[in-house]
Design goal:
The protein is of the alpha+beta class and 115 residues long. It has one domain. The protein is 17% helix and 41% strand. It has a six-stranded antiparallel beta sheet with strand order 1-2-3-4-5-6, with helices on one face. A hairpin with a 3-residue loop joins β1 and β2. The two termini are 19 Å apart.
Length: 115
């Protein structure tokens, strides 16, 4: 089931600890806050990748020193070519929601797989 931005925003705001732990999870992808200023989009893998919880990083968000929120993710542009994409957004919630909405288009940083 797909959620619209308002529903995702309400879910984030209802989180008891929005600065640490898993913020969004659909059983395949999840966003985990590492701190109040950063987090990662992870995809659960069937193969151990020598990473925490057998999950591969597909992107992340962080607060830049100038107060701008940045989100990064990798996409597979075809023929095994990967492109790193970055975007600036106005607030933390927008960075998390935008990253979440892009999750199915991202590729793993380690393997380049879109699964």
């Amino acid at each position: 089931m797909s959620m619209n931005r308002d529903a995702l925003l309400a879910l984030l705001r209802a989180s008891p600890s929005p600065d640490f732990g898993i913020l969004l999870d659909d059983g395949e992808y999840y966003i985990e806050a590492e701190s109040a200023e950063s987090g990662m989009l992870l995809r659960i893998c069937e193969v151990a990748l020598l990473e925490k919880n057998d999950a591969e990083c597909h992107g992340g968000y962080f607060l830049r020193e100038d107060g701008v929120w940045i989100l990064n993710f990798c996409i597979n542009t075809g023929e095994d070519l990967l492109q790193n994409v970055s975007a600036e957004v106005y607030d933390k919630e927008s960075s998390i929601i935008s990253l979440w909405e892009m999750r199915h288009y991202t590729a793993g940083y380690r393997t380049g797989r879109t699964w």
